[in-house]
Amino acid sequence: MSLQFVSSLSAVSRETSGEFGGALLGEPASGALPPWPVQRIFAPLLGATTAALHETWLTTLPMQSGRDEAIAWQRTDGVLYGVLELSEADFPATPACSSLQAASAEAYRRIFRLLDAQGMPHLWRVWNYLADINLEMQGLERYRQFNIGRQDAFLEYRRGAAGNVPAACAIGLSGGALNIAFMAGMTPAVPVENPRQISAYNYPADYGPRSPTFSRAALVYPAGQEILFISGTASIVGHQTVHPGDVVGQCQESMANIATVVDEANRQCRSSAFALNELVYRVYVRHAGDFPKVRATLKPLIGEAEVVYVQADICRHDLLLEIEAFASHVLEN
Question: Domain Chorismatase FkbO/Hyg5-like N-terminal, which positions (predicted)?
Fold first, then answer.
């Protein structure tokens, strides 16, 4: 049985009949975007032989596409992928609500309206990118403003803000719009948590007025398939950053967390066990000069696994890197 959804990474955009959606990472030369939904991540690629990479989800199933409330989307019978960009300038700040908070809440409201209209109520995985994630404005760090807006929309649309929430990342770029890509389906995701960490949605108030709304990982089920999405994972034990200032220590701790999440996922998975060396990784490194150390640290831990390194900011100012990953298995039955 062939996979219905797979991810392909290449230096060029390959237009065939099977593209479902994807991301454009790096700083490409100007040119037209592919016709499928594309999340543009304008950030330097580290150690790459090309200035840009296309990470594309492929499918063998018939597709429908559309555009609603500025969301470009494509769907099959059981899965929907969408991309949305909102300019914060379109959401004037008030004393009670920053522009980013308002834009974040509106972005998720639009996502939930689309999912309800398309009969795809279950949000599986979200990729969030925002400018200046660690900058303090109106007395609050921008990442914390984003968390307020995101959670407001979850609660408004009765999604709940704990337990069955999607896998996600939130990454800082040097500029640009609020940029969100998401995958959703007709069936619920199975959330996976990490016993080494407090669930992000249960973080104490030290980390902001609202906790982040995501699970550490999620198992999702397109027809005939099982996909493990591992959220952005960093050097956090309990709820505290560990190894501050030590990029090697943070890299090792991040991988210890990923290994634990994989073990937890394997307790619940319906396919064969997932392994670290089969995951596809995206590694965000705050300082480009740390890249050689990070790559050297990861190599013995993940073997020949596929990795893309991106220079970007992390959701806490004392975190030097963040790692996300996924893998896909065929279900035999």
Answer: 55-184
pLDDT above 80 (res 47) = yes
Query: End-to-end alpha-carbon separation of the chain, Å?
Result: 10
Q: Do residues 212 and 170 make contact, with C-beta atoms less than 8 angstroms apart?
A: yes
> Radius of gyration of the chain from Cα atoms?
18
Q: At what angle do helices 142-156 and 99-118 cross, to 10 degrees?
A: 30
Confidence of residue 230 (pLDDT cuts 50, 70, 90): very high
Question: In this model, does residue 1 exceed pLDDT 50?
Answer: no
Q: How many percent of the chain have pLDDT more than 90?
A: 83
Residue 252 has pLDDT above 90, yes or no: yes
Task: Average the pLDDT over 179-197 and give the result.
Answer: 97
Residue from 226, 253, 322, 324 carrying the catalytic annotation: 322
Token couple for 164? 């069955």
Question: How many residues comprise the chain?
Answer: 333
Q: Which amino acid is at 38?
A: V
Catalogue the E-assigned strands of 174-306.
178-185, 190-192, 217-220, 225-233, 236-237, 240-241, 280-285
The answer to whether 58 and 19 have CB atoms below 8 angstroms apart is yes
Q: Say whether 322 is catalytic.
A: yes
CATH number of 5-330: 3.30.1330.40
| Strand-pair partners of 280 | 326
Q: Where are the domains of the chain?
A: 5-330
Q: What is the pLDDT of residue 136?
A: 96
Helix (H, G, I), strand (E, B) or coil at 243: coil
